[in-house]
Amino acid sequence: MAKSILVVFFVAITFTATINAFEPSPLQDFCVADPTSPARVNGLACLDSKLVTAQHFSFSGVHMAGNTSNPLGSKVTPVNVVQIPGLNTLGISLARLDYRWGGVVPPHTHPRATEVLTVLEGSLYVGFVTSNPNNQLITKVLHKGDVFVFPIGLVHFQKNVGYTNAVALSALSSQNPGVITIANAVFGSNPGIEDSVLAKAFQVDKSIISRLQAPY
């Protein structure tokens, strides 16, 4: 498993590096993120290069299974600029995804990244929905070794449809792709969206909206 993860990691890095990212092209060898800097920039300010070490470019733990003991039955382990400050301005990141039997990564979007997902173990039902007005659902069942692309900004999801746990690795074309989980955003915003708005949007009674908001 560890060897296969390593191989997919390097393939994903090579593939995603060819994608045009929204981050501006770096104007120096690297710009290790300095989260303590008071500077306000589009991204993160650079750490003094004289203070940079190998630790700023590494992360350990992608070989470890995530804890899927939660209502969704899935766990995402991100490896972005927060975990690897050296990714700052490089326009790339990745994530490990673990799914127990029947587990899902619910409908969500990445506002700043295209995602390339590779299945390492198990079988996944995946898909995305195109933008208005067509809202076409494009889906496929993936097996070990299969790859699927989720275009930037489109709502997408995954579900484990195999009989064992599943593992996938995603490469994303941003150091900070962001994630908007649809249910959390619509029913769990802070402050909450007025129930009359949601009732009208979903064409249901306000009592149903209240039930949908309750878990959040």
Automatic annotation (TrEMBL):
Disulfide bonds join 31-46. The keyword Secreted applies. Oxalate binds at residues 110, 115. CDD domains: cupin_OxOx. The keyword Plastid does not apply. Gene3D superfamilies: Jelly Rolls. Keywords: Apoplast, Disulfide bond, Glycoprotein, Manganese, Metal-binding, Secreted, Signal. Residues 60-210 form the Cupin type-1 domain. This is Germin-like protein. It comes from Rhamnella rubrinervis.
